[in-house]
């Protein structure tokens, strides 16, 4: 039975603005929160670049978006976050197609996957969720600087809570604990979930690292924000369950809200006219309205910011922001 969407209309009426003439790029739009964000930004008038791996799912999602938003302007760009060369090519494509970028929504992510490395040699979760988004943001920053009100929007989750960042998780060919037992995975424990936690805390540290650097330069037309979806029913859980990471039929998952409601944190960050750099949007609990939340101290902790920035730079090169 479909989950009822409760908060979308309120957010659209009270926390978004006309996006006509604005340009957005979103990673991970084939389903879930990224799909909803792309659809709603297009309905508000934005041109939307859809950054996804080449797949039938990506083609089908573009077709659905065009059906749901007949007047929407969408352009698909191949971007495989598990391949640095693909990320660079995607950034070059965006740079060639627009003279400014108003929204970069780093939405895509994977969760609790088995331990494996990408072709570049990095943990698949850390490269997908964090390092490649660092590279993409760096490459597209010249376009963001040309906007009068640019937003860099990163996506975290409740898994951000936990131990501080550790440099080893950003390392090449690192042994990060294996896949864990069925019992650990079912209870959101063990090495898979530790790796996921590190990426979701890294997304926060990246956000506040950007904000700190922009504030120090006196750059205020580019805002860095973070959001979390709460517990939302998306393909993220399906993929994780399929690889042995969780039980999608658990009582816990039965509490989930819809993908539409899960997308509202990033939607507010992308389009709320009152949003400020450093804002953190999401439900106060597992589900609910996407409030403006006080960020916990570890999200901007100097150690976490430094480990994230240095780890990403070691992987993809410097960004002297």
Quick structural summary:
By secondary structure, the protein is α/β, with parallel strands linked by helices.
Please indicate the percent range of residues in DSSP E strands (runs of 2 or more).
5-15%
Main sheet characteristics: 8 strands, mixed
CATH class, anyone?
A: Alpha Beta
CATH superfamily caption: NAD(P)-binding Rossmann-like Domain
Summarize the helix and strand pattern as letters: HEHEHEHEHEHHEHHHEEH
Number of strands: 8
CATH topology annotation:
Rossmann fold
Alpha carbon gyration radius:
18 Å
**Low-confidence regions:** none
User: Mean of residue pLDDT?
Assistant: 94
Q: Count up the helices.
A: 11
Structural class: alpha/beta
Number of domains: 1
CATH architecture: 3-Layer(aba) Sandwich
Distance between the termini: 47 Å
What is the molecular shape?
globular
Strand order of the largest sheet: 3-2-1-4-5-6-7-8
Tell me roughly what share of residues is in helical segments: 40-55%
């Amino acid at each position: 039975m479909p989950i009822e969407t409760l908060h979308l209309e309120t957010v659209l009426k009270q926390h978004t603005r006309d996006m006509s003439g604005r340009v957005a790029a979103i990673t991970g739009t084939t389903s879930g929160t990224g799909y909803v964000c792309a659809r709603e930004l297009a309905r508000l008038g934005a041109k939307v670049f859809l950054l996804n791996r080449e797949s039938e799912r990506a083609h089908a999602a573009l077709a659905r978006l065009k059906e749901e938003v007949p007047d929407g302007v969408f352009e698909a760009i191949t971007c495989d976050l598990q391949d640095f060369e693909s990320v660079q090519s995607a950034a070059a494509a965006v740079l060639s197609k627009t003279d400014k970028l108003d929204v970069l929504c780093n939405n895509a992510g994977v969760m609790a996957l088995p331990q494996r490395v990408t072709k570049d040699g990095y943990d698949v979760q850390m490269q997908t969720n964090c390092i490649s988004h660092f590279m993409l943001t760096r490459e597209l920053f010249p376009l963001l600087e040309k906007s009068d009100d640019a937003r860099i929007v990163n996506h975290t989750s409740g898994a951000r809570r936990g131990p501080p960042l550790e440099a080893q998780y950003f390392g090449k060919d690192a042994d990060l604990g294996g896949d864990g037992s069925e019992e650990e995975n079912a209870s959101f424990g063990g090495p898979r979930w530790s790796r996921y936690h590190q990426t979701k805390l890294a997304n926060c540290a990246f956000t506040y690292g950007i904000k700190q650097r922009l504030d120090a330069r006196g750059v205020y037309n580019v805002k860095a924000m973070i959001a979390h979806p709460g517990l939302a029913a998306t393909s993220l859980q399906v993929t994780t369950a399929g690889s042995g990471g969780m039980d999608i039929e658990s009582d816990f998952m039965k509490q989930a809200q819809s993908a539409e409601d899960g997308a509202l944190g990033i939607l507010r960050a992308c389009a709320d006219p009152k949003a400020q750099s450093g804002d953190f949007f999401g439900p106060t609990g597992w589900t609910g309205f996407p409030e403006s939340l006080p960020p916990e101290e570890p999200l901007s902790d100097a150690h976490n910011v430094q480990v994230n920035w240095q780890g990403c730079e070691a992987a993809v090169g410097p960004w002297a922001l």
